[in-house]
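Quick illustration, no need to memorize.
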Amino acid sequence: MPTRALPNSPTPYPPGPRNAYPGQILFAMVRDPLGFLLQTARKYGDVSSFKPAGLRIYLLNHPDLLQQVLAAQSQNFIKDQGLQMTKVLLGQGLLTSEGDLHKRQRRLVQPAFHRQRVASYASVMVE
């Protein structure tokens, strides 16, 4: 995302939780990752940002925004440094690949995520 100033904002970043003491956000994320993300989205809206350990993270909480980042404008976004380093362990899979390779891998797994297929998984997941 561009770092242009937001209206009525003292920083060029979207709003989000700030550390009251060093490591506060990181501790909250480790203690309850899903709870932290849900609380952040509820409090700060569809776009927020925070720095748990010196690295700015953006949280997008709207399907249209995710579609833009993951599909429509995916060529404008790159994986972060941490994920880049996991290539050594995980290889060039869907999680770590980018560009044409990522697009090709995504198309291969796409049928498994068709609406009807996902609906058929629901009962198994509930059990």
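Strands lie at 47-50, 57-60.
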